Structure to design on (662 residues):
């Protein structure tokens, strides 16, 4: 364990100054006192009070999301978060969360029991037990793609879906498309609701009438295309906007099996710009989310919340990446 | 200009320690060095090195906003921004902007000519020449309380007015108020529009009907109260929500001159939590914006934009600070 002398040497001040800081003496500034305490904690010096506290640990809670491989959506998010967190000497654990865990244990209890001082929660659905509890938690929590009103300890991080979908719809409209379908991600999700509203809004902006037969929820899996794309084609869709690139890869399969060429017969746009987007043939035009930066922003938000700075939203702009999957409409 | 001794006294450390901090000596900690630098910046001390690195320059552009004294709205914003910017060795110039300057010179031209690599723009009105140009600029720009769609180089920083106004209106409603007036800030301002919409929305949320005779624009000056408060009182207002604390101080004057006691006869709520809020009698309940943190978030946003990370929004939550200016409605 570090001694008071170690702390004094590290900070370049007298031992007596460190003592004053640790004991809350009135003749040093509040800022210096804080620095002495911060340094003491960092160097492993522990007063009795500190000894009761756990190690400096954060959790990345993951539900409904792949993250273990480079081409998974969550991979870069975790990487960006970790890169920033390690600079401030946080240990970061990635914790897969299941409905079973959420029903067995309350959010606050879980966090306290494991000594986590804050969490970055990714992939949670609106109806999850923990989402209801996070709305009222006093544990600093940054949420990816979920928003909670009025709670000073909870912040949102995400990409502006509205702008992304507007750019995509405008691009399709400019290429002559008038029947633009949307195969969204999972229902019961805050971000899917935002995107559904953005899609309808963007259609109205260009003067098109939303048609419920041209939209469906695809649960962020490629396979969902098989169930929804044939109906959309039957309704006359000339372009399909997708909730993510995996769904788009499924749309590719279905269209090809129906003898349609991309982009000559049908245009497809993805979301996220996962590695798969540039591996498809033709390469997929998509709405890019910068996931590494989102992870960094999540850390910035969480670290602010831990320091009692109530960031409610940190939002990144998407980019529309043009590749080869959008063509002129023939109709 | 502050001396090294002033900084040492303020922090409660030796003069030699401050010297080490300013000169980057290896035998004091990075954290203490940072604290010394932050304090030096705050106290207006500048090293030779700081003076030399003026080529790496950012501008804080200020219009329609007081910032020179501790009790001005802009003061802490600039302080927070500077504290963060100096850590990355930026020189920061504060530039007062006038309509004349904006009509004489284009935004991009001004920035390039003076070698600014980015700007934090505070207090701009929607119709300002430069606002129209910033919508399409490629120079990294963080806007306080102004939002520009789709531009990858421009980000918004602000406090969630909607939540602040909702908290204030709910508080007043819970105390029995049914005629809640709103003396807003300046018209032709993005944030005033947001707050006007939030006020109307909050009234509807609690089941009250908006009444146009109970709202007016007060240009963020105390004097505006003289023109608008008598009419609001005549309409039966029992509470007045104000666009900032200065307006609230004007409302205090008018109410007192009409023989009304605060909070017995009329309730008043401010916005911002400037120092004046706690100097009024009775002390003013207000919607607090953490201006130092807003300034820090502005730097975070601008620095991200400079590094090609497109943050579109960084939003802080307000706090409702209860003091002595809200009472039960007698009607």
């Amino acid at each position: 364990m570090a001694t008071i002398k170690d702390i004094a040497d590290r900070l370049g001040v007298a031992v007596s100054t460190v003592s004053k800081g640790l004991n809350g003496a009135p003749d040093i500034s509040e800022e210096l006192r804080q620095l002495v305490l911060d340094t003491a904690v960092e160097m492993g010096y522990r007063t009795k009070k500190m000894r009761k506290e756990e190690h400096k640990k954060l959790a990345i809670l993951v539900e409904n999301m792949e993250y273990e491989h480079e081409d998974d959506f969550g991979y870069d998010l975790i990487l960006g978060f970790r890169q920033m967190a390690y600079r401030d000497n946080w240990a970061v654990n990635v914790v897969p969360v299941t409905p079973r865990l959420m029903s067995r244990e309350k959010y606050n209890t879980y966090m306290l029991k494991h000594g986590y001082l804050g969490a970055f929660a990714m992939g949670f659905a609106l109806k999850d037990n923990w989402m209801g509890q996070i709305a009222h938690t006093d544990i600093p929590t940054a949420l990816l793609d979920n928003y909670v009103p009025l709670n000073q300890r909870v912040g949102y991080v995400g990409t502006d879906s509205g702008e992304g979908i507007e750019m995509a719809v405008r691009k399709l409209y400019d290429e002559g498309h008038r029947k633009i379908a949307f195969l969204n991600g999972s229902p019961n999700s805050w971000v899917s609701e935002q995107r559904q509203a953005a899609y309808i809004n963007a259609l109205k902006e260009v003067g098109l009438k939303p048609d419920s037969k041209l939209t469906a929820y695809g649960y962020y899996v490629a396979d969902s295309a098989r169930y929804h794309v044939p109906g959309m084609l039957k309704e006359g869709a000339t372009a399909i906007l997708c909730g993510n690139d995996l769904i788009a890869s499924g749309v590719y399969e279905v269209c090809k099996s129906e003898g349609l060429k991309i982009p000559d017969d049908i245009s497809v746009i993805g979301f996220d710009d996962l590695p798969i987007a540039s591996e498809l043939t033709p390469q997929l035009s998509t709405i890019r989310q910068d996931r590494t930066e989102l992870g960094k922003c999540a850390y910035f938000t969480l670290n602010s919340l831990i320091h009692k700075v109530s960031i409610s939203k940190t939002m990144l702009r998407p980019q529309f990446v043009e590749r080869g999957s959008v063509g002129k409409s023939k109709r």
Notes: The mean pLDDT of chain A is 92. Chain A touches chain B at residues 9-14, 17, 20, 27-29, 31-32, 35, 38-39, 149-150, 152, 160, 163, 166-167, 290, 293, 296-297, 300, 304, 309-317, 319 (CB under 8 Å).
